[in-house]
Amino acid sequence: MATVTHSKKACAVNPLKMSAPIGAALAFLGLDKCLPLMHGSQGCTAFGLVLFVRHFRETIPLQTTAMNEVTTILGGLDNLEQAILNIYNRAHPEVIGICSTGLTETKGDDVDGYLKLIRKRHPELDNTALVYVSTPDYQGAFQDGWGKAATRILTTLCEPLPRTAWQVNVLPGCHLTVADIEEIRETIESFGLYPIIAPDLSGSLDGHIPETFLPTTLGGASVEKIRSMGGSAITIAIGEQMRWAAEALQEKTGVPFRMFDRLTGLQANDEFLQLLSELAKDEIPLKYRRQRSQLVDAMLDAHFFCGGKKVAIGAEPDLLWQIGSLLTDLGCEIEAAVTTTHSVLLERMPAEEILIGDLEDLEQRAAGCDLMVTHSHGRQAAERLGIPFLRMGIPMFDRLGAAHKLSVGYRGTRDLVFELGNIFIDNLHHNQPDSWPLPVNDGNEHAQAETHH
Predict the structure, then answer these.
(1) What are the backbone angles phi and psi of residue 165, rounded to the nearest 5°?
(2) CATH number of 157-285
(3) How far apart are CA 101 and CA 438, in angstroms?
(4) Average model confidence (pLDDT) across the chain
(5) Is pLDDT at 140 greater than 90 in this prediction?
(6) What is the mean pLDDT of residues 188-215?
(7) Has domain 19-140 been given CATH number 3.40.50.300?
(8) What percent of the chain shows pLDDT beyond 70?
């Protein structure tokens, strides 16, 4: 079991952590015809907007209540009301997702009360869902914001419905990419089941060219589909961050849930496909048996190059668990692990210590490692240390196709295993004639030669 410690520095240097409001905003971006609204200053929204644009390389609809010094002191009702009305009149979204920030949380704005008053004043908003989530910057991190937003989306929109045996809810964590979500959907559909995924970035931020322009999100989980989640046979939650949402949905609608802390690796996917087989009352398709065999062969091929390698990882807890567990399966050692927030998974990590800290902490602990794994802000640290670097997580702004990086399922795990193995192969030390290590002469060779003579 790992020991979880906290960095004692007075400030973060090269931060690893991203704030909860940004995580919540990304969750709302996974809904169809939605416009996320940050209740705070313009700067809070601007930083998140730039981060998402650089990572996804797409148009990101994100609005702000533009709080200033005076409105912060007097209260944000007028700003929130005006922002909601402007969004409604100009964009006509089906959902407005409201995320609080450290500014308005410190002031103590009663946003739930504000929304009741706004609805009373403006009956034209009756057909627009207003979903508010409390996400102060100073509490939690990116995946906490995503989990809280997903919980509020479900508790606000879902209602108990008659059960549909072939309908399956899927609650993906923020560590899953667009390609990961698409792979999960295709796998479930191959069993004849109907998945409803929320939030669903694979519909809204998959990089497609839309036929028309809309000022809201285009694609993702619709309000109608989310409401029907109350009649599913089961909820599949992927990532510990989604436990809150799965429990809340079960409490409100009675739909049972099954947790998967990861879908990367051999055993995790065996259990996932076994569950789908039981739900569909059918055998696992032959193509997955073939893919499983390919993954086993890939792991056999890669373990010669991965075994004994020391790795440093910096990531959100669920992503840290996902990649760390796979590396351990391949025989690697987690030499350094830095994360952003608390999770029950941390103590189970196959490492001696898990530090809640920043990328400077990771750099100090990564000296002598064979690989560093984190998002793009860790590239300079890896360069200074002279060690290979694998980009994973958000933001990934110095590579194309970040959203289409696949690492779940048998296929995704296989490709990730090959990528890891190839990195280690590229950095093998090859001896040259002038640097070939010679046997150490301890005198025995000379004695043996004399005896033979």
Answers:
(1) -65, -30
(2) 3.40.50.1980
(3) 63
(4) 94
(5) yes
(6) 93
(7) no
(8) 97
Which pLDDT does position 434 carry in this prediction?
A: 76
Instruction: Collect all residues with Cβ–Cβ distance below 8 Å to 142 and sequence separation of at least 6.
Output: 17, 18, 19, 20, 22, 23, 174, 316, 340, 394
Structure tokens at 149: 């937003």
382 pLDDT above the threshold of 80: yes
Average pLDDT over residues 184-208: 96
pLDDT at 438: 73
Picking from 311, 419, 398, the residue whose alpha carbon sits closest to that of residue 362 is 311
In this structure, the number of other CB atoms found within 10 A of the CB of residue 117 comes to: 13
Measured in degrees and rounded to the nearest 5, phi and psi for residue 92 equal: 50, 55
pLDDT above 90 for 1 = no
Ranges of each domain in the chain: 19-140, 157-285, 290-426
pTM: 0.92
- The 10s digit of each residue's pLDDT in 393-447 is 999 999 999 999 999 999 999 999 999 999 999 988 776 777 777 777 655 554 4
CATH for 290-426 (3.40.50.1980, 3.30.565.10, 3.30.230.10, 3.10.50.30): 3.40.50.1980
Amino acid sitting at position 35: L
